[in-house]
Amino acid sequence: MTMRTYDYFACSNGHRGEETTTENDQPYSKSWERVSTKGLRSGPNGTYLCEVCGLPMCRVTKPQA
């Protein structure tokens, strides 16, 4: 079975991004993990920067639909 975890981010200009972590949590099988991002780019020391304006991104609660 595959488990997905979602983390949401926003910069001070209001741009939003999302990190999705997908991992195999099935017992007795090879462990793996994949992280994909949308609206984010890698920053220094494991942080994220806004893909649009380049400002640092902060973790936020899940946006309402």
Characterization of this structure:
0% of the residues lie in helices and 51% in strands. With 65 residues, the chain is mostly beta strands. The chain has one domain. The strands form two sheets. The chain has a four-stranded antiparallel sheet, with no helix packed on it. Strands 4-5 form a two-stranded antiparallel sheet. A hairpin with a 5-residue loop joins strand 4 and strand 5. The radius of gyration is 14 Å and the shape is elongated. 11% of the residues are buried.
Task: Break the fold down into its secondary structure elements and pairings.
Blueprint: E1 2-10, E2 16-24, E3 33-38, E4 40-42, E5 48-50, E6 58-60
Antiparallel strand pairs: 1-2, 1-6, 2-3, 4-5
Tally the structural domains. 1
Distance between the termini: 27 Å
Topology pattern, helix = H, strand = E: EEEEEE
Rg, Å, rounded: 14 Å
Sum up the overall morphology in one term. elongated
Portion in strands: over 45%
What are the defining features of this structure?
65 residues, mainly beta, four-stranded antiparallel sheet, 0% helix, elongated
Sum this structure up briefly.
The protein is mainly β and 65 residues long. It has strands at residues 2-10, 16-24, 33-38, 40-42, 48-50, 58-60.
